[in-house]
Amino acid sequence: xxxDYIEANPFNPEAAGWQTACEKNExxxxxxxxxxxxxxxxxxxxxxxLPYPDGFFDVIATDPPYYDNVxxxxxxxxxxxxxxxxxxxxYPELFATPLTPKSEEIVAYSHEEGGYEAGKxxxxxxxxxxxxxxxxxxxxxxxxxxVFAHKSTDAWESIINALLNSGLYMTAxxxxxxxxxARLRAKESAALASSIYMVCRKRxxxxxxxxxxxxxxxxxxxxxxxxxxxxxxxxxxxxFISAIGxxxxxxxxxxxxxxxxGEQVTVAELLxxxxxxxxxxALSRILESPRLGGIDTEARFYLLWRWTYNDAKIPFDDARKxxxxxxxxxxxxxxxxxxxxxxxxxxxxxxxxxxxxxxKQTPANMVDVxxxxxxxxxxxxxxxxxxxxxxxxxxxNDDFWRLAQAVSEVLPEKDREKQMLQGFLYxxxxxxxxxxxxxxxxxxxxx
Length: 447
Ligand SMILES: C[S@@+](CC[C@H](N)C(=O)[O-])C[C@H]1O[C@@H](n2cnc3c(N)ncnc32)[C@H](O)[C@@H]1O
Prior knowledge:
This protein has helices at 18-33, 72-86, 115-137, 153-165, 184-188, 211-231, 236-251, 267-286, 297-308, 316-326, 330-333, 366-378, 382-391, 398-410, 416-426, 428-446, and strands at residues 57-62, 138-148, 168-177, 194-202, 208-210, 256-258, 314-315, 339-342, 345-348. It is of the alpha/beta class. S-adenosylmethionine binds next to loops.
């Protein structure tokens, strides 16, 4: 661990300062003191081996750790040493060790033997074990609610595998906005704003289904929920993650899902299918048309990326998954056009970062035309824009203008490219007219 800035500023008299911290704590103590002392029993045990008999609980609610997101046990040590001295004698069994016990912690630390890979494997094994424990101690008609928030689809693949292998399946899932927007981590990364609440029950019976036969059901359920999420304003990476739940609701009903060859369909394959469904849905909503045919694949990728991640640097594997969903092979595009590889990350360049020779190049796709048009706009070169649009045949192409409009809408306020797009779109009529006379002139030259 290394030092970082604290999230709260104690000197701020308003949000999250010392004053508010004290007020909030006082309010919380008053509120919590109203709960009768005998209503709850609090026990401490590891989630991987619960000291309860089979079929004991009606409801289980849990918020498991997420890989290496937070080093809880090490953070706890800071408080543990003081609590041990102040209330340690009241709870001797909880303070038996000099520091917090680390061996049972479900976490993906990379400082131990085997590095991150070993830590990740250990995390996944312990998580699966704890889900199996949930299934064991839950009554047959009991309900479990598991919270999970992680932006990497890899993490989702493991948690869903762990869930399905434990004998539980999801019957509903809800994205709930739980994170503070101002959090430091949220500012530069594509951090999620929502956690997904997965409502699970015990799977009964062991039916097998064919993927082909349940695909339509999965798409129907995903579409139903996406309509609702769209109306609620969920967007970007949250939107993709929110679609996983509804798909697993249908998929997880079956103990085994097979392809026609008899091979088992993996969770990775299910998630790939979900990403394709979500991409198409999101693109048609952003473009306000179910017709995507006139928009080339590079443009679909660009639009979807801006909407999902905007400016963030994304680990290669997540970027590859998004590109696959729209049918782009990332390795064929990077470092050639607007897709840039920076070590293990992928970035998508805005018009202004396309390089000094970019305007001299022949545009290879709709995004290149759009970016060249924006650069010409910022140089106030109206004639250049008209020539470009006429030469590339985009002036009269409604799909091109729809793309420009959609990119402008998905970018955040004050974004430089958004401002350029707004200016460019404002002159649309004039450019189209000028491009018309431009092409008439070219035709005359050929005559
Ligand atoms: C995401 S946090 C839950 C935070 C909690 N919902 C809250 O609001 O404070 C995950 C928690 O799981 C705990 N944990 C890790 N390994 C565990 C284990 N084997 N058994 C039980 N809890 C464990 C961590 O210490 C951490 O407190």
